[in-house]
Amino acid sequence: MMINYKNDFPILKQTVYGKPLVYLDSSNSTQKPQCVIDTLSEYYQKHHANIHRGIYELSVRATTLYENARRFIQEFIHAKHTHEIVFVRGTTEAINLVAQSYGRSQFKKDDEIILSGMEHHSNIVPWQLIAEQTGAKLKIIKILDNGEIDLAHYKTLFSKKTKFVALTHASNVLGTINPIKEMIAIAHEHNTPVLVDGAQAFPHLTIDVQALDCDFYTFSSHKAYGPTGIGVLYGKTTLLEKMPPYHGGGNMIETVSFDRSTYNKLPFKFEAGTPNIADVIAFHTALVYLKNIGMEKIIAHEKHLLQYATEKLNELPNLRIIGTAPNKLGVISFVLDTIHPHDIGTVLDREGIAVRAGHHCAMPLMERFAIPACVRASFGLYNSTEDIDALIAGLHTAMRLFH
Ligand code: C6P
User: Which domains does the chain have, with CATH numbers?
Assistant: First the structure.
């Protein structure tokens, strides 16, 4: 069951402060395999030209590579059509696009938007902005003590005014994998569309948007072994079609005159300007890399790491894991005694161990668990049980230093 792909990631071969680098911050951003780095360099050396415009060989080739990536992603998440895959800068932009385009055209005063109490700021603030602009209101699903969503509470939040539900597939702090299929079905009983924030789930689970029946699904390449600056908005055709453009500019139009413009067909209506061509193509390479390993294998590996780390961390006195749901990603957040999470992060850094310490862009969740911050270790396919042993040793050092 154990897999070891560390050698594919050149960055992981370095030392930090004279210690081998132990990278435990994949929920923040994953490292990149050599094949992704090579694709970027090869693209600029051999294939670059602007796309969808040129009639010459290079432009046709770049356009083909870009559109092949879209087709691969469509198949990877089991979307019905390629035009349901819209390239954006990342999850954050995808959610803002839906909030501003769908929300601005559909919400009115006193309409209600349901979010959960475990959302990342990227799935809170865009909805607050559109609520301020339209007079809509937010309703928040409670979180249980073990870090699961309170489904009973969720069901009570629907009313005639409910217009939208936006939920994370998995929490970036608690690791909880939410029962989104069930939650989407409940929302649909109330004729309410659902956006799923897949930033954390996409790189670590198999995603089938048709089986989930979600209306929108969003994710970022950089958390899935691809480059930064690129992400995807999946949307059902019927919804994307009725939404107005988000950005105006080249590529997204059909005709322009000073009286009026008409818009390009999907997905181009939402891809104004020259897109991030190279990173789309390198994201394709990252997904081929994942597919070749096999998502099932990656899932089993990360589950094993989670179990191992949970057992080891629970052996430490005065350590409290935040988020103990039975169904979790390879993400463990914790607080340790009275040692401030930032101090723990600093000590671990000196040992060559990269973790994240802070509020993890989920301040309402920190408040829910009555903590100012926590330390988070998160795993990728390149991690091993030795990395977790190094973390435990680093925590012992922190405990010695601060007592
Ligand atoms: N979470 C973390 O360390 P972007 O930055 O657009 O690629 O992704 C935003 C985002 C949205 N939703 C969830 C659930 C996320 O976890 C993130 C990014 C990182 O947890 C950086 S704050």
Answer: 6-30+294-401 (3.90.1150.10), 36-291 (3.40.640.10)
